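Record type: ASSEMBLY
Status: queued
Input:
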Amino acid sequence: MAESKLAPIETIFANLIWSHEPISSGELVKLCEKELGWKKSTTYTILKRLCNRGIFQNQHGIVTSLISHQDYLALQSQNFVEETFEGSLPLFLAAFTRRRKLSQKEIAELQKWIEENRG
Amino acid sequence: MWIFSFFSRLLEVSWTAGIGILVVLLVRLPIFRFPRRLCCILWMIVLIRLLCPFSIPSPLPALTQQNGLSYFWNLEQRNIETLPDISLSQPIASLSGSETAAVTAEVSRISPAALLETIPQSTLITIWLTGVSLMLIYHIFCSIRFHRSLIGSVKLSKHLFLADHLLSSFVTGVFRPKIYLPSWLPREEWEPVLLHEQAHIRWHDPLTKGLFVIALTIHWFHPLVWIGFGAFVCDMEMACDESAVRTQQGPDSSIRARYCALLLRLSGKGRFSTTPLSFGSSAVRQRIAHLYQARKASLPVIFAALGILAALAVILLTSPISQQELWWGCGYRVAEAYDAPSLPDQPPFSRFLFTADHRLAALMSDETSDWKELGVFSPKDYSRQQLYRFFDATPNRIQETLDNAKQIHRADDGEENFYLLFKDRRNTILAGGITSAATEKVQWMAVIEPDVQGMITEDLECMISHALQESQVTVFSLFETREAPGYLLTGWQTAKQLEYSVFHYRKSNGQAYDFQRLRSQAFDVPPSSPTFTLTNCSLGEDGREITVDLILSADPALASIQMEQGDTVSRYEVTSNPSMATFPRSIHQETLWSLLDDSGKVLQQYLLPSQGEAVYRYYRF
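Status: finished
Output:
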């Protein structure tokens, strides 16, 4: 779980699974051959690696995700904020708005989101 | 065995290449601002030297040194008839009889490999082979690790691939080079990296690096080859850096700055690996420094480079045409040393030869065991009194010898030793003495005789190895017969075959003999047993076929062979390996052969019908 960050090609591969899951491994092989030009063994090797990292699982030839695409993105942004802004959301927002003012629509969305998530 | 000659050649090559590596290392010092591509070409020469066991003959002196003492049967190189007519031939020819051996010896210098000669060569070879195996295992390990890391790469074009988890970009593949880029590298930074990698492909760097890795595997024991390998890889990278920076469009300084930043980002902290040519693999600091120093090669630099290249090629890739002296001569040995109080020394050598041009050469029995020229003989008209003056005292025997001395020759070695050669009534005498301020005193004196047994084996070995292009020939038995003078039967073996051959030798000019291989066959007349072989073979030509029986045995338990012919019982000793014995045969008589052990117990018996009658000489080696 800790090393959940996917490398660029792995991300493409993972997106294929996320957008097609549940997918049979045979289908996945065909899909990867079309999209990435991979051989069957390559697909299985990479799938196995990602399964070992706890992102996907392959049960009886059906590939499903253990971490959903949304969760993965959330984890990545959290990691990003952790790494870059010492885990401080205000700092991140401050940096984000430094170059560009927020539009009225964005402010409204943010306020709504803050109300929803108030502790 | 071939491996021994291969190994000594390997050491020679390593030694020579080491010097070449030092030269290139010097040339590539930053101070000379040598374009790196030219350095790479210099490395090629070193590489060829490391991998190619052959040298082109050249009249120039070179760095290679010949190993040890070797004999050479000189049938082609020097025609014996062109040798000068000599007065020395009389004493020698008159005493040489039919059994004089003609010997050539090659004189040589001490080689660097001689330092290692205290360790048995087989041990060294074992160590070397172990090292090579370890290197190979490491290469395989690297290769597997490397290819595993490429699983899941994506092909962008015929030569371009993207792969995850790469620290740097690289080129791999000797025949179909492929560029691998790390997938995290932003697209706008591909151009300089691709230019760098394409330069690698253009110059066939993957191939050269592969060859250098092979050289490193073979010469793993040579530290300079390791240093050279590192420097060579660094030079290739720098050359491609130069090329990539030069090819890009835009202001020079910004290109360099961007390129250097890229180098830093792509510099992996990878382990030493022999497989790919990695963009950021080596010496990033030097490479950045080099980029800021590099100038386009000026004409003088190019000319200097060509000069160094030519010099290096001549030094490394050629070997001098052998300047070694070939000595033809009659092989002699000490038959009996005079024993007298006035002669304090024994002859310092037991085998020596007289060359057709009057030189005395000896196989020194000191620790060098090397052939050494001792002097050139010239005739002297010493009177009896003058001869006496060489001795402090002349007991009867010496006096008798000196009184009959004729055909006196003298040789000086230029230091303090002198040699006298003369004949008395029956024998040929060689005496050695020391010259001091006022006196010249003989220190030893000996009767000498032609040496067939000792030298001719080695000569035959040389001749056979020369004729067959075999590096190692062992003559394990040899004999000649009184009945068929001029014929030698010899058993010899190489790594591949064991053979008996009959050689015809012909006196060609007093001292020397021409050898001709008449017939060879694996003689095998049953019965044979695992412990010994009874064989027979024929000698001679011109209707003078003579058949001999041979007993060969490698079994030291066999102590003797007993032959019963009618009422006669004869017993012959069987030598241990290598051995050969020949026996007389009688016409129309059956012979019972018995093999006896040490205590005289009969081990095996064979009844053989016999034909012909001849007495053969038996040599034991």
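Annotation: The mean pLDDT of chain B is 68.
Annotation: Residues 471-609 of chain B form one domain.
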